[in-house]
Amino acid sequence: LQFKLTTRMENPIDGELQPFFEIHDSRYMMYWLALSEKGYKEYLQKLADEEAERHALEARTIDKVMPGEQQPETDHRMETSRSEKGSTEGVFYRDARNGHHFSYLMKTNGETDLTLRLTFWGQDEWRTSEFDILIDDELMASADNTHRWRTTQFKTVDYAIPASMLNGKNEVRVKFQAHKGKQVGQIYGVRIIRNENNK
Question: What's the rounded Cα separation, in Å, for the pair 78 and 43?
């Protein structure tokens, strides 16, 4: 059997739907997003809001690293003591365990009203994530994300960087060091951003 769709579509299909066995050597689409008129408008608004949020974040970003990716880590002169990398949902991460660490040299542009934003994977039921964040080998914060979210989504956490750690500097080395017997807990993104009141 063959079919022709008459439903209103954002990107109409020019042609008929055929049995799968007849198009095994052709490109095909198996699923469509079906929405009501109200749902469609809400969906477009959600996409627009997400895009605006991405643009706003990029405007606030002074420097960023995608951990686990070779070029960004090379560009930021990564130093490491037995760290490891992997990926989740196609996004790379870096992790360290049992007192080991990894670090990046990141730009600050001489600014002092900044925040460190880290991205984690929320599904952490088996992970004991306890680690220190150091700026130029000085302790900035200790974090404990063990069983914090329990969700299959990426989560971001902001850590305000004290101005005293940034004064007179155009770049800083940001280090993540696991506590003894624990792990950092897979970091998927590292950003230094301007605070909201300092866009």
Answer: 40
Average pLDDT (79-103) is: 94
Secondary structure (DSSP) of 80-139: EES-EEEEETTEEEEE-BTT-EEEEEEE-TT--SEEEEEEEES--TT--BEEEEEETTEE
Of 158, 139, 161, 172, the residue nearest 63 (C-alpha):
172
Any idea what DSSP says for residue 67?
T
User: Residue 61 forms beta bridges with which residues?
Assistant: 193
- Between CA 184 and CA 130 the distance in angstroms is 6
Dihedral of CA atoms 166, 170, 171, 172 in degrees, nearest 10, equals: -20
DSSP code of 3?
Answer: B
Instruction: Please state the φ and ψ torsions of residue 73, each to the nearest 5 degrees.
Output: -70, -35
Residues 105 and 134: their CA atoms lie apart, in Å, by 12
The span from the CA of 57 to the CA of 143, in Å, is: 23
Closest CA to 80 of 106, 104, 101, 105: 101
pLDDT digits (tens, 9 = 90+) for 13-30: 777 888 888 877 777 666
One-letter amino acid at 13 equals I
Closest CA to 153 of 127, 175, 124, 115: 124
pTM of the model: 0.79
Domain 62-198 has CATH 2.40.30.60: no
Report phi then psi at 165, rounded to 5: -85, -5
